[in-house]
Write a structure and sequence with these properties.
Length: about 575
């Protein structure tokens, strides 16, 4: 993981608005000069690339200001959470190249939170409400209309204390009672209208089992967890901006320390075109079998991108490029793919693969001869060296690289014209043979032995260069091509349609008849390659000996925008 640039190297240049706020706090001597952040995922799904944006910020700020960043699982809803998700989240953060200081769970604080709730009931700042959630919702009012006070709002403290304890002993049904903060039903901030603090859940918790029957709401858990841990800067997405006054309200009730106070700062979520970025919807895709699991290479999950062949560095470079702002928007997926190309261009060895093979016979080349041609691994990096590729009389080339009757500008293979075979010779096409159905089954050409790559330049101008593999010295392979998962540019906006209707029916194309050069026999799962002229590919972990499977990570050029213009 040492080839991943640290945030320090990446971010020396200019400050984003959050860094500026942190520097101001430091300059003012707040929190005794400490910087502490946390990344707080709820373990109810796999991380997506939006989370990578939060991760880069939470860990990046800590690193930049010699602080610490902890990983805190916000596990306050046992119904949706699972250890499977906890494990995957850890793996993904590490893969992105970040190290947490400690791991915490909101459930570590269940006792402290419970005690704090009891304290608030005693102080007359919380009460048990026995109304149904529907009635409570009706009483909320609107931003311009005050809400209606619950008939239970002024019940005796002793009664609430007793009921809250019995709620936690499992005496009451889910939904029959809740604990609410007693704040202000007329507040212009809806979150102050006696927000819910605790609800009853009987489902066992993945860590605490059946110890607890009441579980704190996000607003009653998050700020306090920050406070218990010593978080100084609690970074979250913009939708929490309206929750900030409530965050501060609870902290005020808890805090008796002049030198320390956690501060919530919000930034814009990452949204990407042609995909969805909500765990709930991603879970739906998985559950309904619309994709092949969380790590399907079409998914915007970290594990999906890993399997697809994206690199941590490419993702981090992308996050760096898009930056942090105070307004929401949607980022073009092409920008992420651009970062991936930029990174793989520097690192991926160049190899040859033919996706849709047709046989090319070099009729004047001796039968049985095998020439080992030198193939440069990476023109961007001389240190990457070279490997050998076998050249023989019978080769495979791409079917689409041949035309029997070609227009003038067709610089590939067609009878009567010359073309270069990459790393080998210039050949002159002499014809082809078709089967009864009119399909081309063999192409013929003659080579010029004086044109081997590396020989002194002849004065012949040859415009096209084709990739190829030897028939005998190549391996079969399956190649999976991916396209946008959704047809809609912003599927989240198409509220009236089912997720399924918005999918791109051609998001996956499986080619089972491909041929790859021998060099790839030693490829290991997740290894990256550039298939010359075709794109960047990696070896899929589904591969087995004798059955190699490659994923197309990205094509060499962004042809999506062109396709769209035509449509
Ligand atoms: P989702 O809506 O996808 O379920 P979430 O916000 O519920 O996401 P959490 O596990 O609570 O997911 O998120 C952990 C952290 O990641 C939070 O600080 C959250 O603000 C941040 N985060 C989640 N989605 C994005 C996103 N699209 N862009 C940036 N940060 C995000
Ligand atoms: Mg959440």
């Amino acid at each position: 993981m040492s080839d991943i640039k640290t945030n320090e190297e990446e971010g020396k240049k200019s400050l984003n608005f959050i860094e500026a706020m942190v520097e101001k706090d430091l300059a003012e001597g707040k929190n005794d000069g400490r910087v502490q952040t946390r990344f707080p995922p709820e373990p109810n799904g796999y991380l997506h690339i939006g989370h990578a944006k939060a991760i880069c910020l939470d860990f990046g700020i800590a690193e930049r200001y010699n602080g610490i960043c902890n990983l805190r699982f916000d596990d306050t809803n046992p119904v949706k959470e699972d250890v499977e998700y906890v494990d995957s989240i850890k793996e993904d953060i590490e893969w992105l190249g970040f190290k947490w200081n400690e791991i915490f769970y909101a459930s570590d604080y269940f006792q402290q939170l419970y005690d704090f709730a009891v304290q608030l009931i005693r102080e007359g700042k919380a009460y048990v409400d026995e109304q149904s959630s529907e009635v409570i919702a009706q009483q909320k009012g609107t931003p311009t209309q005050p809400g209606v006070e619950s008939p239970y709002r002024n019940r005796p403290v002793e009664e609430s204390l007793d009921l809250f304890a019995r709620m936690n002993q499992g005496e009451f049904e889910e939904g029959s009672m809740i604990l609410r903060a007693k704040i202000d039903m007329a507040s212009p901030n809806m979150h102050f209208r006696d927000p819910i603090m605790y609800r009853i859940i009987h489902h066992p918790h993945h860590r605490t089992g059946s110890t607890w029957r009441v579980y704190p709401m996000y607003d009653f858990a998050h700020g306090q967890s920050d406070y218990f841990e010593g978080v100084t800067h609690s970074l979250c997405t913009l939708e929490f901006e309206v929750h900030r006054p409530l965050y501060d309200y609870y902290i005020d009730l808890l805090n008796d320390n002049d030198n320390y106070r956690p501060r919530q700062i919000e930034f814009n979520r990452l949204n990407l075109t042609y995909t969805v970025m909500s765990k709930r919807k991603l879970l739906q895709l998985v559950k309904e079998g619309l994709v092949n699991g969380w790590d399907d290479p079409r998914m915007p999950t970290i594990c999906g991108y890993r399997r697809r062949g994206f690199t941590p560095q490419a993702i981090r470079n992308f996050i760096k490029k898009i930056g942090y702002t105070k307004y929401d928007g949607i980022i073009d997926m092409a920008l992420l793919e651009h970062s991936v190309r930029e990174d793989l261009n520097l690192t991926a060895p160049r190899v040859s693969a033919v996706l849709d093979p047709v046989k090319l016979i070099i009729t004047n080349y001796p039968e049985g001869t095998v020439e080992m041609m030198e193939a440069i691994n990476n023109p961007e990096n001389p240190e990457a060296g070279s490997h050998k590729i076998a050249f023989t009389r019978e080769l495979f080339i791409e079917r689409e690289d041949f035309m029997e009757e070609a227009p003038k500008k067709f610089f590939r293979m067609t009878p009567g014209r010359e073309v270069r075979l990459k790393n080998a010779y210039i050949v002159n096409c002499t014809g082809c043979r078709k089967n009864e159905a009119g399909e081309i089954i063999e192409i013929y050409a003659e080579y010029d032995p004086m044109t081997k790559t590396g020989m002194p330049e002849s004065n012949r101008k040859v415009k096209g260069t084709l990739h190829w593999v030897s028939v005998e010295h190549s391996l079969p392979a399956e190649v999976r091509l991916y396209d946008r998962l959704f047809l809609a540019e912003n599927p989240a906006e198409e509220k009236e349609k089912e997720l399924q209707e918005l999918l791109n029916p051609e998001s996956l194309t499986v080619l089972t008849n491909c041929r790859i050069e021998m060099e790839l026999a030693n490829a290991k799962p997740y290894d990256h390659f550039q298939f010359q002229r075709l794109g960047y590919f990696n070896l899929d972990p589904d591969s087995q000996e004798g059955k190699l499977i490659f994923n197309r990570t990205v094509s060499l050029k962004d042809n999506w925008s062109k396709v769209k213009e035509k449509a």
